[in-house]
Q: What sequence folds into this?
């Protein structure tokens, strides 16, 4: 963790770093109102998405915990699941692998001193302060209210400034026409930058999980945990309270939505 | 007198020429061939009256697009996906694959180039998913999870993976 706070303050407030008090208050007020109208209903809504006519709310912050101690070396399930869900061609099958779009990739790291090996997936870290949004000349790169960093392809001009700005190499440009091979839920096309969306189409549908996390669970590794980091009762918040986690390049102070354990 | 005759002659000539030209262009009256407007496969009535939609569908689509992309509102009314679900042609299964398909037919007549389908799929959801030759079936368990309307539990996923 990059910022150390006095124990008393962090205990009284929350595990989050950015203006948690106000969020908590808004959430509590909404919950109280919800219970008054329909007891039980709101609990479910907060946990698993919202009515489809409601915009994404800043009361939620989607995040992911990657437990690299459980991430299996050589396993590529999360990457495969992402490409299947979002319709991008796996890099190995691409005609131009060096410029192929890549929303998530597996990294195998080794400590040169101890030879300890670490395996982890790397993708868009969904920063609270995203550099890609700062540099975008057209406002196409943006952060949604619920913390998901996205590209509005209708305004993206394909300048790739965001790709340069991203410390995590998370973004790719689509170089080739896709010739109607896109998924109906995931529009993507030539000349636009793209990256991990935290499966925003699934989140909006109320699935409350991403394709990569589902695949990791299905493969029996349970290394990926997706959830609402603003909800103190969510599984991810509980795990984040217990496990020591790190942000990659925490020195940049970007307040990441993806936290790693065991690196 | 000669001047008058000349003027009359000119008028007569012009009239004859015009009539001849009119007769010549008679077979292709109306210029370019009219667009073929296929009736929507599903549904009886569009979300707005047809006349209104013909003139204003782009405005509705743009407004809905911004609400969906930026705010995450995914209501069905005015969504491009729902347009495609109803208007995809029975023959091609698409709104923009062939010349007579719903979107292309009018847009080529009006000479308005659209780039919606550079990024958006022209086919309704699920039409190809169950095709045995479709490569997508290779990752069947993820597919099942992706298309489920409700969250899939870890146990269910594990069961699919084992089968």
A:
């Amino acid at each position: 963790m990059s910022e150390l706070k006095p124990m008393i303050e962090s205990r009284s407030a929350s595990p989050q770093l950015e203006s948690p008090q106000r969020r908590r208050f808004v959430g509590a007020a909404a919950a109280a109102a919800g219970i008054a109208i329909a007891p039980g209903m709101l609990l479910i809504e907060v946990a698993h998405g919202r009515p489809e006519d409601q915009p994404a709310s800043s009361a939620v912050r989607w995040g992911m915990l990657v437990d690299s101690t459980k991430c299996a070396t050589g396993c590529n399930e999360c990457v495969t699941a992402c490409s299947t869900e979002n319709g991008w061609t796996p890099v190995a099958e691409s005609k131009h692998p060096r410029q192929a779009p890549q929303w998530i990739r597996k990294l195998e790291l080794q400590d040169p001193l101890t030879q300890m090996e670490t395996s982890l997936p790397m993708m868009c870290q969904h920063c609270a302060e995203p550099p890609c949004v700062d540099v975008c000349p057209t406002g196409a790169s943006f952060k949604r209210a619920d913390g998901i960093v996205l590209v509005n392809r209708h305004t993206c001009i394909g300048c790739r400034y965001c790709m340069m700005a991203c410390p995590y190499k998370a973004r790719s440009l689509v170089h080739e026409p896709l010739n109607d091979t896109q998924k109906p839920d995931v529009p993507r096309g030539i000349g636009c930058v793209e990256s991990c969306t935290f499966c925003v189409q699934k989140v909006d549908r109320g699935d409350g999980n991403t394709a990569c996390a589902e695949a990791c669970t299905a493969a029996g590794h349970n290394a990926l945990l997706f959830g609402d980091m603003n909800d103190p009762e969510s599984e991810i918040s509980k795990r984040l309270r217990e496990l020591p986690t790190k942000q990659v390049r925490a020195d940049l102070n970007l307040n990441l939505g993806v936290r790693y354990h065991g690196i | 007198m000669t001047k008058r005759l000349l003027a009359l002659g000119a008028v007569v000539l012009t009239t004859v020429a015009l009539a001849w030209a009119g007769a010549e262009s008679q077979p292709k009256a109306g210029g370019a061939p009219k667009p073929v407007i296929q009736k929507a496969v599903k549904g009886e009535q569009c979300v707005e009256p047809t006349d209104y939609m013909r003139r204003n569908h782009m405005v509705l689509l743009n407004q809905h697009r911004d609400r969906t992309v930026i705010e995450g509102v995914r209501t069905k009314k005015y969504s491009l996906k729902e347009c495609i679900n109803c208007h995809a042609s029975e023959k091609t299964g698409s709104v923009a694959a062939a010349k007579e398909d719903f979107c292309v037919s009018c847009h080529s007549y009006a000479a308005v180039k659209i780039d919606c389908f550079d990024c958006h799929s022209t086919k309704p959801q699920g039409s190809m998913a169950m095709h045995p030759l479709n490569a997508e079936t290779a990752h069947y368990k993820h597919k099942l999870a992706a298309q489920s309307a409700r969250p899939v539990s870890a146990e269910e996923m594990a069961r699919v993976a084992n089968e």
Remarks:
- Chain A touches chain B through 47 residues (CB under 8 Å).
- The longest strand of chain A covers residues 104-110.
- Chain A has one domain: 62-261.
- Residues 147 and 205 of chain A are 17 Å apart (CA to CA).
